[in-house]
Amino acid sequence: MKIVSTINEVRQQVKAWKKEGKTVGFVPTMGYLHEGHESLIKRAVAENDQVVVSIFVNPMQFGPKEDLASYPRDLNADSILCENAGASLIFHPEPEEMYEDAFCSYVDMNGLTDALCGLSRPVHFRGVCTVVCKLFNIVAPDRAYFGEKDAQQLAVVKRMVKDLNMDLEIIGCPIIREADGLAKSSRNTYLSPESRKSAVILSKSIFMGKKMIEDGERDASKVINAMKDMINSVPLTDIDYVEIVDVNTMKSIDEIKGEILCAIAVNVGGEARLIDNFMMTV
Ligand code: AMP
């Protein structure tokens, strides 16, 4: 496995693979990799001849008061995980390689990005769309793999690819969880032992909400309120949102039917803003 930091090196390698008729899978990440990322890489390895993993903490998708500076980084551990999972190439650029001084072009979106995380993170999805578009242009993959953990991001990337006629397939992969249910996240490392205990309430509320719908509840507000009560019943939790939306529009719904996304974001202990969700077709 190679680790490269320039766009040129990625292009040369991918060109050589394509000349040999090889397919290329791509897993974009911000690093500090865990079993969630590993599941994406392994799926990409199973479905493609060569796999590129990008590790780039993209400044453009962080707001001024967010955790860009403190975001955890460990390229050594990440490269071991990538190699063991079967990746062929890590692309690990510096911000200057991705954004030269004169940079002024963006990919932006309306509608899908106005709800959920877009409300409390107004610049986030413009940064995500711009960097993902750039990475697709650099890597030119046949398939790219994204986690359902970031369900709104997955929907946004799928929409961007369709709207802008990008020639690749986007594949969503299931959420990987800790033994107690907490969705794995690089940001879980921010949690003190006390907050970690409280954080499990996110997945508990997700499982309960899902069960309510499976048992026949169709009133979205009843499910949302039950989930909010559950989250508020433990210390150190500060709800950003608990929402049920149509997965194709990200608009809130009153009656649960069709393809729905139930998504939550909770600040835990003032240390980490964590997200979780479930998707269902009713
Ligand atoms: P990140 O490094 O947090 O930007 O995540 C990179 C990719 O890994 C995104 O597509 C995430 O949705 C995905 N991912 C992160 N955590 C998980 C998880 N627990 N299960 C599945 N995919 C995940």
Measured between the Cα atoms of the first and last residue, the distance is: 44 Å
Give the tally of β-strands: 9
What small molecules does this complex bind? Answer: adenosine monophosphate
Q: Find the structural class using helix and strand composition.
A: alpha/beta
- Sequence of secondary-structure elements: EHEHEHEHHHEHEHHEEE
The strand line-up of the biggest sheet is: 1-4-3-2-5-6
- Mean pLDDT over the residues: 98
Helix content: 25-40%
| Dominant shape | globular
The count of helical stretches stands at 9
- The Cα radius of gyration reads 19 Å
Q: Please state roughly what percent of the residues sit in beta strands, choosing from under 5%, 5-15%, 15-25%, 25-35%, 35-45% or over 45%.
A: 15-25%
Specify the biggest β-sheet: 6 strands, parallel
> Which stretches of 5+ consecutive residues score pLDDT under 50?
none
Describe this structure in words.
It is a single chain. This protein has nine helices and nine strands. It is an alpha/beta fold and 282 residues long. The strands form two sheets. It has a six-stranded parallel β-sheet with strand order 1-4-3-2-5-6, with helices on both faces. The protein has a three-stranded antiparallel β-sheet with strand order 7-8-9, with helices on one face. Helix 3 links the parallel strand 3 (50-55) and strand 4. Helix 6 crosses helix 7 (151-163) and helix 8 packs antiparallel against helix 9 (220-232). The mean pLDDT is 98. Adenosine monophosphate binds at residues 29-30, 36-37, 39-40, 146-147, 149-150, 173, 175-176, 183-186.
